[in-house]
Amino acid sequence: MMNKLFLTLLSSFLLCVLAAPPTPKTLVQVRDSRATLPFVTRFNASGSKIPEVDRARAAGLREHALGIKSDSSKSTHGKRQSSFTVTNQVVSYVASVGVGSPPSSFNLIIDTGSSNTWVGADKQFQSTQTTEPTLEPMAVEYGSGFFVGQAFTDTVTLAPDLVITGQKIGVALLSEGFQGVDGILGVGPTDLTEGTLVTDPFGTIPTVTDNLFSQGTIEEEVLGVFFAPTTTEESANGEMTFGGIDDSKITQDVQFFPITATSTASEFWGIDQSITYGTEGTTILSSTAGIVDTGTTLLLIATDAFDAYTAATGAALDSTTGLLSISPENYANLQSLFFHVGDSTFEFTKNAQTWPRALNAAIGGTSSDILLVVGDIGTNSGQGLDFINGFTFLERFYSVFDTTNKRVGLATTAHTNDEVN
Q1: Exactly one of 54, 182, 272, 293 is catalytic; which is it?
Q2: pLDDT at residue 100, as a whole number
Q3: pLDDT for the residue 11
Q4: Catalytic residue at 154?
Q5: Where do the catalytic residues lie (predicted)?
Q6: Residues with Cβ < 8 Å from 58, sequence gap 6 or more?
Q7: Which candidate in 54, 111, 318, 386 is catalytic?
Q8: Which uninterrupted H or E stretch holds 140?
Q9: What pLDDT does 15 receive?
Q10: Residue 24: is its pLDDT beyond 80?
Q11: Which of its termini does the chain have fewer beta carbons within 10 Å around, N or C?
């Protein structure tokens, strides 16, 4: 149903794209080599079961990656659907971003699993002296929503010392599924923009990180992401550092790992890892490929690994929330998970595996429930996307997305062993 609506609206839009007259571009030069963008974590269950939303996102990411791979040969001339990535609005990270000169502020979801930046879902976009229409229709379907609009180039201000000139963005004429926000700030790999310009199905669009680097604003095309565990429905607990790493947020050197060679994880911020449980090292997930993703709420693992984790912990599915529930007796014996990436091991503690009790009621649970954040990705291992280290994992570790060197970094923080949940 969503596909039919999206395609109908897209077809109608292609017949009536309107373009404003071009205006002069103002050049802004910024010399800082590293700067930080704060963001707010927002929680909004909206009656959805978090595991179902996360599995839908995982399926969408997989389908989009397969579309990119099949298109890379250019052997067919038919246009595939623009994008199938799914925006998870159960937990979202929202930053205030300026567009235009003088800039208008838009609240945009930060997403490492998609790469288009667009505005206009809620607050209407207004042209300024730096706005230039391109006459290019743009469309992205997210599974849980979509936007159809037009591409513009404009000045984008992430922070006073993070200003991008001539950034190609989308301006929504129609959108669905983005209540309470104005659009997306996409910071995933550039290839994820392929096909989002309707008239150029194999073309890509430089991301905001690409342009910060090419314009000399940052010295390295590197993004560092930090946020602390949250137990409230809205919390200003995070920051993104463009151009480097915020050393004040880490308690060890960042450990870097190459982007996996395994498709479909290789299309995203993908790594190879294995997971064991407890001091005896019970295997939960053998070494395989998956991704690090800010847009997924839970720690998702392949179905066979999820079954192994359920058996090891004595947990059972809670029908109301869709999360694993564990008895006080079994919880007393719950042990850490250990993530083995390259030559490094990261401990995911008992508390880290626990859904914040302060948020139980928000997802339909009770204050006495003990719920866990490990979820089933929906497919067995060996599919090329066998885990997603999502929000609940990244609360405990600083993450680095290094485009220049095609690698992902992880480091412990002061919150890795927090006892807050």
Answers
A1: 293
A2: 98
A3: 55
A4: no
A5: 111, 293
A6: 296, 300, 377, 378, 385, 388
A7: 111
A8: strand 132-141
A9: 53
A10: no
A11: N
